[in-house]
């Protein structure tokens, strides 16, 4: 009985989290007429798939989703590859340069991205990376990296130095102890960072908007926005249908690594 | 260092492997001598019918002009200016750009758009009235006026009415030739207010453009220029429409207070339920009524009320050519085709807006009584360039001064004198910064 309030609070939280998705599904199945009812309905009275037909018929949603997936996977893998050794160095080596680097990582987080979008665009143009997916990946990696570094170095700090020292006593060199001792313990942190990078890249709109110009390279957020008009007016039915489909890859990705993420969060929380 | 280099190399390799097939080709408008000219056309059409019309016209062009191939690129209204600022600065903007006339002023003065005044084909120039050309005529940054776009779609304010409630009130039904005066409109709204039903709804979440455009019916311009300096003015002409709407809300109590804070389309569910009879709105809102209204719901389109004149302020949707376009002549040829009379009629129908082309306006689809097209199209003759269109600093005045002040006044939190004082004093401080 003492746990009842906890369960009530948890149930309320689940409802809070599920509400947008359920409402999205409900809207995607409604006719324009039903969407305009003064008393909104949860369950569509005359469910229709017309919104899905419109969304997929008018826009290359599948192609855009594939491109978004490629960009998000490449960005998240590269982010982790770069940030993993860097975060180890940040956590383990104490020097002035290290402190400056950590400070710089923090400062980079308070910069409004919009301020640097034009210079960044110029750089990409000079590198012939405008209107290309590699260009977008490079930008996503650049902007995800500081937070990923910050995140991962917390996990590295949580790994006791004594473990590495014990490995050294047993004759392992630094590289060996990193690969065989530290890296396996960082798996939850790596998964959490991977997920963070993936979601950031998957949802990113502004950089994609200015970098990608050819319809054949546009990502999913750029495709979804085509269902919106000026001043917040939107074609709600097709937008809801397309948005619902856009959440699926993220849900699948999350479902696959959920267990590892959970332990990752716990590991970080307990040991950090 | 070696580790860092190895990581960088690995990153580049992974990136190349992951994305090798996905890249485009930079700006993409240059062509070899024997290759067709390639133009990028950034379109902001978003309604289903409008997108279809755009794509169809581009396809027709591409089929008829194998040497000038146009790529249709769909953008979005909410982000287009952020997108263009970056692409203009980087020299990779699309060749043909769809936008609206208020946005052109800044881009023109920064030298990003091509002045079309000496290049426009006579047929296109003559088919569009001067009042519409005025909406795209700006200072190009060197003190000379130029034409920086071709205006093709405009919006006027009409009244969408519940026919049953209108008939029951037994008021004179206004026509395009004999619209209601503001007095008649107020009287009609009062008559329709009974048994929990209001006469009118004023959704004023974004009140500035609506108030400024309607204020022209009494000659209210809100801005005056003397000695090259523009200042805000709120005299009797500017107060007239404001006061009348305020009276409907708080004196006559004929306006639904629930709609006041809503966006333009938000009151529609209540409209279908018969909670109010009249909804002053832009002509495009008819599309949503057609799509959403319950079966059996009868509605009509009425012309907007007139004061000392029937004039309304207008902005235009436009097609412009980027200054950096490598093929401006071909781009203009495409625009001339895209905006010929027949095509403008298709585009206007798709967006439920008014064509600027005289030929398009005479198209039977634009003059039919169905869905209020006759009334909407007839209202186009009253459109004049919106007074705020050429005011440097208008955007900031709108968001930082006018919108909050008008919202407070319409919510009855301040008097009209206080509103006028703040619009002028705070507004002039804003405008001054743009005129130094």
From TrEMBL, chain A:
Pfam families per the UniProt record, alphabetical: BPD_transp_1
Domain spans labelled ABC transmembrane type-1: 65-257
Entry-linked SUPFAM superfamilies: MetI-like (SSF161098)
GO cellular component: a single term: plasma membrane
Bilayer disposition of the protein: Multi-pass membrane protein
Alphabetical keyword list: Cell membrane, Membrane, Sugar transport, Transmembrane, Transmembrane helix, Transport
Main location as per UniProt: membrane
GO biological process, one term: transmembrane transport
Gene3D superfamilies: MetI-like
Protein name, UniProt field: Multiple sugar transport system permease protein
Automatic annotation (TrEMBL), chain B:
InterPro entries per UniProt: Bact_solute-bd_prot1, SBP
Pfam families: SBP_bac_1
Signal peptide: 1-20
UniProt keyword annotations, A-Z: Signal
CDD domains in UniProt: PBP2_TMBP_like (cd13585)
Superkingdom of the organism of origin: Bacteria
Keyword Ribosomal protein: no
UniProt xrefs under PANTHER family: ABC TRANSPORTER SUBSTRATE-BINDING PROTEIN (PTHR43649:SF30), ARABINOSE-BINDING PROTEIN-RELATED (PTHR43649)
UniProt name for this protein: ABC-type glycerol-3-phosphate transport system, substrate-binding protein
UniProt organism field: Nonomuraea jiangxiensis
